[in-house]
Amino acid sequence: MTGITDVLVVAPHPDDDVIGCGGSIAKHVRDGARVTVVIVIGRERSALDDAVSDAEFAAETENAAKALGVHRCVRFEEPSRDFVLSRRVHLDLVRVMREVRPQVVYLPHDNDDDVEHRMVHQLTTEALWMAQSEFFQETGGRAMPAPRLVLGYEVWAPMARFQYAEDIDGQIETKVEAMRAYASQLRHAAWDEGIRGLARYRGAVSAGSGHAEVFQVLSLGAPAVGLRAGGGHD
């Protein structure tokens, strides 16, 4: 993608942005774009990482963002499992959107197995039209133009069909490094190995080799130069 100056990534939980589109984030940064990540829901403690303090976990998030080159990370800290799609959280996201005015937006795809991922998909799609409207003046800022591209990424449930594949062969090590910054999450599962394997598979399917991230195209505005179309299997 060329001519992109501002990118917005909306993640349900810490590390979802890394898993879903970390390679694409690093590629945008390489090409000179500013990337803002919004993490909607706060940390969910488990018995596997209960010894990790909130400050230590926040440092993991910061280190992952730094590894990818993220310009700004905004954490809403909404409650896990008690998360609701309130007017307040919609307006919080609209406010960020109007500040960033992104040309590209990433969000979870619409059929992810995790219910909170689907809720954040709904939140983001609703906030996008709100941010482009002449209403909701309480958020401040002007109505933003429509993004050139809105893409759904995969985390818990790989997509059966996709419309766009991004070559991240040059960014796969950066993506894995960012995932390894979440040391507490690697106690739950070998996410670093998982994202490498999925990217390798997606590279083989979309281009025959290498590593890739694939996306659901949710909205396509002005033509974006350099897109590679992909196709999923039924």
Descriptors for this entry?
234 residues, alpha/beta, globular
Q: What's the short story on this structure?
A:
The protein has 234 residues and is α/β, with parallel strands linked by helices.
Q: What is the topology, as strand order, of the major beta sheet?
A: 3-2-1-4-5-7-6
> What would you report as the Rg, rounded to the nearest angstrom?
17 Å
Biggest beta sheet attributes: 7 strands, mixed
Summed over residues and divided by their number, the pLDDT gives a mean of 91
For this structure, the quaternary state is: single chain
Number of helices: 6
Helical proportion, percent range: 25-40%
Low-confidence stretches: 223-234
What is the CA-CA span between the terminal residues? 27 Å
Structural class: alpha/beta
Task: Label the overall shape.
Answer: globular
Order of helices and strands: EHEHEHEHEEHHE
Instruction: Give the strand content.
Output: 15-25%
Count of extended strands: 7
Protein name: PIG-L family deacetylase
InterPro entries: GlcNAc_PI_deacetylase-related (IPR003737), LmbE-like_dom_sf (IPR024078)
Keywords: Zinc
Organism: Streptomyces amritsarensis
Topology:
Blueprint: E1 6-11, H1 16-30, E2 34-41, H2 54-68, E3 72-78, H3 87-100, E4 104-108, H4 115-132, E5 149-153, E6 164-167, H5 172-180, H6 191-207, E7 212-220
Parallel strand pairs: 1-2, 1-4, 2-3, 4-5
Antiparallel strand pairs: 5-7, 6-7
